[in-house]
Design the sequence.
């Protein structure tokens, strides 16, 4: 744990979240026949991330100084996740929300903890379907469904 890095990153994330919250208020009107606007989900996610960032910032003051060991930065994992995020953005429309989100989460879970492919597969599927169900069926929002070439 690097306290300086954690504190700095927490403050940067709070600033980014504030921007997301402010900008998402401009998109709150419903569109495409949706009951909720396209800015609701980004606003909720930004609020959650801001709260978690504040908690992380607070934790850095609570942890006692111990012999901080230099941790080896894991650039390979970072770049795999960046690549997966870019691919997710590019494939979201063509593959649809469920498939692209499932694949992104599967890759992310495997990058974070190799092995346990069955758990990664199950969690990726459950999370993808749960978010889709809540956002589309419960909140009456719109997300890209399955691709047309699947015929579903």
Sequence:
């Amino acid at each position: 744990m690097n306290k300086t890095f954690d504190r700095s990153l927490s403050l940067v994330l709070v600033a980014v979240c504030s921007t997301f919250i402010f900008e998402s208020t401009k998109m709150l009107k419903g569109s495409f026949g949706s009951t909720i606007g396209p800015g609701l989900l980004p606003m909720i996610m930004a609020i959650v991330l801001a709260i978690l960032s504040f908690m992380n910032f607070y934790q850095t003051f609570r942890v006692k100084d111990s012999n901080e060991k230099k941790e080896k930065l894991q650039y390979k994992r970072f770049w795999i996740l960046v690549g997966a995020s870019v691919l997710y953005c590019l494939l979201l429309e063509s593959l649809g929300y469920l498939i692209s989100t499932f694949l992104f989460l599967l890759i992310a879970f495997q990058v974070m903890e190799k092995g346990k492919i069955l758990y990664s597969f199950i969690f990726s599927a459950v999370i993808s379907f749960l978010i889709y169900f809540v956002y589309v069926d419960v909140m009456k929002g719109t997300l890209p469904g399955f691709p047309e070439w699947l015929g579903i």
